[in-house]
Design brief:
about 350 residues; mainly alpha; ABC transporter involved in vitamin B12 uptake, BtuC; two-stranded antiparallel sheet; 14 helices; about 0% strand
């Protein structure tokens, strides 16, 4: 009898240990918490407001989340290597203005305007990367300076006026859908799948992560870290410029004010999505989930009739909470790792 009770207690202890290990495993994953939080928010809003699950609302939210993903990728790709791009929003604005100027003022075809605008945004951020590599200046300083430079170009080119004469064929990507699913959402999911594959299975993805994880160790292992840094900033430009073009496609006009709120959005989505601020981590699923979560929160604020001018305040609080949670998660993971090493020894 005593032996059976002891066996039962041992079995219960093993079960509790298994549950605890599973929870610790989930917590150590950078994207797990945001996926769970997003699902909880979705369920809560579904029950709290009857208009939440309407096709119109879901369509609009998925388009907004898609744009947030592209904006966040422009930041995440440089955070992965331990850098940042403060000029992200200005690059988006410059891309928008160049595209609008080409199509509205010059009357050029979207097939000419879009590649030219994309090339402009990409080259500008590539130039940032070149300066960082050659001068060894901190990315914060370089991109802060370029933020003002590119913002000045946006205002100088547009004179503060929007470009409204955008051809209808250019707005198809931002406004049309496939069986109710926006083209924008399909596009960003494909981009995320490709990026997830690259970071997990391709050499270039591993080199990006290695450079962010430990720059000196990556250099000593034979990785040409200068080229990796330049590549990361170039890709940041590609994503920022693409986000700008998609923004024009959705809105149907090129607004010079585009990108003014991208900096906080890019950091919020990237960090909440599991991109470690000190580099070396990337999660495609986490970025998608965090973009959806941020969209849900903004949609919820609208439903609660919260003043739109307080939106930035909430975003700032969310970023602060995300960084705090990430800090706790990293400390927990490090402590757990040390405990495992001790147990092995």
């Amino acid at each position: 009898m005593t032996q059976s009770k002891a066996a039962e207690r041992a079995r219960q202890t093993d079960q509790m240990g298994s549950v605890g290990n599973a929870l610790r495993s989930i917590f150590r994953r950078s994207d797990a918490s945001v996926v769970i939080a997003t699902l909880i928010l979705f369920v809560l809003f579904s029950f709290s407001n009857s208009s939440f699950l309407t096709p119109f609302n879901l369509f609009n939210m998925s388009r907004t989340a898609s744009l947030y993903v592209m904006v966040a990728l422009g930041q995440a790709i440089v955070i992965v290597i331990g850098h940042m791009n403060l000029s992200l929003g200005a690059i988006g604005g410059l891309t928008v203005v160049v595209a609008g100027w080409c199509m509205d003022t010059m009357g050029w075809s979207p097939w000419v305007a879009a590649p030219l605008a994309l090339l402009t945004g990409t080259l500008c951020v590539m130039f940032n990367g070149f300066i960082i590599v050659k001068s060894l200046l901190n990315s914060f300083i370089v991109t802060l300076a370029s933020l003002f430079i590119f913002t000045g170009l946006v205002q100088g080119i547009s004179q503060g006026f929007p470009y409204s004469n955008i051809p209808k064929e250019f707005t198809m990507m931002g406004r049309n859908d496939l069986m109710g699913v926006p083209f924008l959402f399909i596009f960003v999911v494909i981009v995320l799948i490709v990026l997830g594959y690259i970071f997990k299975y391709r050499i270039v993805g591993r080199r990006l992560l290695a450079t962010g994880g430990n720059l000196e160790a990556a250099r000593l292992s034979g990785i040409r870290t200068d080229n990796i840094i330049l590549l990361a900033h170039t890709l940041s430009g590609v994503f920022a410029a693409t986000a700008g073009l998609l923004w024009v496609s959705r809105m149907g006009s090129a607004q010079p004010s585009t990108g003014t709120d991208w900096l906080i959005v890019s950091f919020a989505v990237a960090i909440i999505g599991g991109t470690a601020l000190n580099g070396g981590e990337f999660s495609a699923l986490g970025i998608l989930a965090s973009a959806i979560m941020l969209t849900l929160i903004k949609n919820g604020l609208i439903m609660l009739n919260v003043n739109v001018y307080f939106e930035q305040t909430f975003l700032g609080i969310i970023v602060l909470l995300a960084v705090s949670v990430e800090s706790i998660r990293m400390a927990f993971s490090n402590r757990s790792g040390r405990s495992q090493v001790k147990s092995v020894v």
